[in-house]
Design brief:
This protein is an alpha/beta fold and about 270 residues long. It is built from 9 helices and 9 strands. The two termini are about 25 Å apart. Its EC number is 4.6.1.13.
Length: about 270
Amino acid sequence: MRFSLFTTLACLAVSHAAEYHGIIDPWSFDVDEGKFTDWMGAIDDDTLLEEIFDFLDQHPREAVILRIQRGGIFVDSKTFLETFDDVFVSGSYVGDRAIERIYTADDDVISVAPTLGQLRGKVLILEDFETERPGRYGLPWNKDTVTNYNYKFSLGGLFLESKWNSVKSHLSQDPSPDSNILRITHTTASFGARPINIAARNSPSTGMNGFLGQYLKNSESKCFGIIVMDFPGKHLVQNILAHNNKYRAPDSARLPSDDTDTVPVEASYSNA
């Protein structure tokens, strides 16, 4: 597993909306948390996908990992899947672009995480919803494919150091060499606090981004998987890129899907 890709904030901001339970219909993502309208806004499905596809058109060596959950207790799985399929219908503008940009396996069923070389220029969907055939739309979100640490509730900015210790414990776990499970660690909280107070706090205690940046700066060469965070600052981004450079292939300027990218894909992505 490699901590080897930093995707753009604009794309992944909406990916993380699902973590805030902000889905207001079967498919559109809403990152408007009501009272948080000063820093959040809404985005619809076509706009989201077009932004992601446009980004990959401009940066074909990058990749986007998009976790999709069925939102709302009143939306049944059948309705969700019908709406989902409508978005990707062949012959529509978004649907035709999706055929080119959404990652699919050769047998149309994804069961293991792809390598970075396979995923360049593509969107990997993390399929966190029920389907008749798991892996049809993306990598199924289950214990066989994903290991995930996520504390969902936070009492404001209290006990941040204790929360960080739990995050660090998950980051510090050494996966087995033959493991193909995607590791995801959330430094965020879904509710109970304004995310920026968790991420960028300076007083009276350090925020999650400060803890994370120092940890990455001082860590040995380890593979951390995907780290989900809010509002990363300049120094944290620099620490991520410096760590990723340890795994850069000497001939990384070659074409997107070259044979040097044989490690399972992992990314550090952020919400902003």
